Amino acid sequence: MMILHLISLFVINFPAVLAASPPITIYAWPLSAPSPKPFAEIVLPSATDGTAEVRTKNIPNVSDGEIVRLGILDDKKAWSGIATSADSFRPGIAQRLSLHTNTEGQVVHIGFSSFKAVPQNKGIQGDDIFVEIVPIQMGVQPVLNKPVILNAEGKVDKPGQEDNRTFLQKYWWAILLFLVLQLAAGGGKE
């Protein structure tokens, strides 16, 4: 009976184990340090759960006014991240990490912002890290294969554009031609 219970637990939890992604390590790298140190370890949500979980958090020891690089290392150990001031890690300052993901759900870049924490009665601690997952979005696509229509002057016609000239401005040449013909033809002799 116990073996059957263990097997059923394994079968039920097996898809959740497969769907769980490995944790993402965010590194903090002060300019004075020779190498980056882990800042936070974050577990991305599975397909059914929409919240990321911060497993560990290590505030870097930095002096006032120092610049700290925050970022990730990809599979090829290439750095991708941002730089922020040491003031972002003071007590009472909350941080927001934006994890930018590609179409496969892998984190390719991070964003970071810090802000003064809200009062304690709201249930938010001053040193909390908020994680936001930002999936890649398609940009604006150009509209192709529309013919360009030019007017008589060789310029692009704008829809709704009307000719605002008066009758005399439009047909002055025809009136002038008529008058010249009348004068040149002269009148008959009577």
TrEMBL record:
Please report a single Pfam family linked to this protein.
ECM10
Top-level lineage group: Eukaryota
**Tagged with keyword Signal:** yes
The residues the entry assigns to the signal sequence are 1-19
Per UniProt, the keywords (alphabetical) are: Signal
| Protein name (record) | ER membrane protein complex subunit 10
